[in-house]
Each structure stands twice: as C-alpha cells, then as structure tokens.
Amino acid sequence: MFGRKKEALKEGEYIFASKPDGPYRNMIFGVATGVEGSKIGVSGTIVNPVGLKNKVSQGKAGPRSAEILAAPTPANCIFAFIYRTEHETFNEILDLDENKVILISSKMYSVLDGWIRESLSELLNNVLSLPDGQERDQAKRVLKQRMDTLYDKNLKQNLYSICRSLKILN
Prior knowledge:
alpha+beta, five-stranded antiparallel β-sheet, 5 strands, 41% helix
C-alpha cells in the first residue's frame, strides 16, 4: 500500500480501488465505512472514464492510456479524468481478496473528489475538443475562472500542473 507495510484497513480511512467494467476498470475512491475480515464497506464515488475509453477504442490514444484503464492507480487516474467522465455514488462492499484496495491520504482524496465535484473533466474536455478560435478561447477563459475560484490548494496545484502539461494555459 504505497511503500507502507501491509496493515489492516480501519474504518474512516480513505481508499482507492477499481472495479471491472468490460476490458477496463472503473475507479472508486471514498471512505472505509466498516471492515470485517476481507470485506470492506466503502462510501464514495465510482467513476467511469468514458472519454478515455472512447479514445482508446477509436485508436486515438497510446498504450499508456490503455494501461491507465486496465490498472488505474491514484497517481495515474487523473489522466483519465481529463476526458469526459460519468460518475455516481458508490455505497457497496468490496472484497479485499478480489479488489486491490489502496490507502490514500486525505489530500489525495480531496484532489480526486474535487475533480469530480467541480466538474473539471467537463471544463478540460470543452477546451480540448474545440478547434482553435473564439469558442476555444472562451472555454479556456471559463476554465481559468474556475481554477481561480478553487479553494483547495492541492486541487488547484494539480489542475494547474495538468493544464501546463496540456499546454492550454497561455
């Protein structure tokens, strides 16, 4: 679990997991609501990265994208959040013998949750999907305004980093 000795999960800890969805996996992040043996109750969000799945199926994405979809981690899943996502509340029990569950920090949880809660995927996708011109410039302004109003420092830094790497900040 990220360089730490395997230890028993406890109620109230933040976790990241994934669940099969066809040839790829959907991402789950949330809070452990109960632990009994190898079963863990999770209350959080499940994210289906439909935009990246479409890109891969159309052959418009490289092998790294397919790797992210096949084996998502807290570190690489943000790259799936750049494209359109679908999400819903997740309140289920995961079996630790069947699902890889990773302990994450509260900061990492707030970044992942912020991407979904603030609809950052939608804003980024708007910029990336438009051709150069007035509409794209307007989408960039909307994204920049949203970035400027974020309160979570870690989320803001993460978003700025992604935008710089995508070369969408002028």
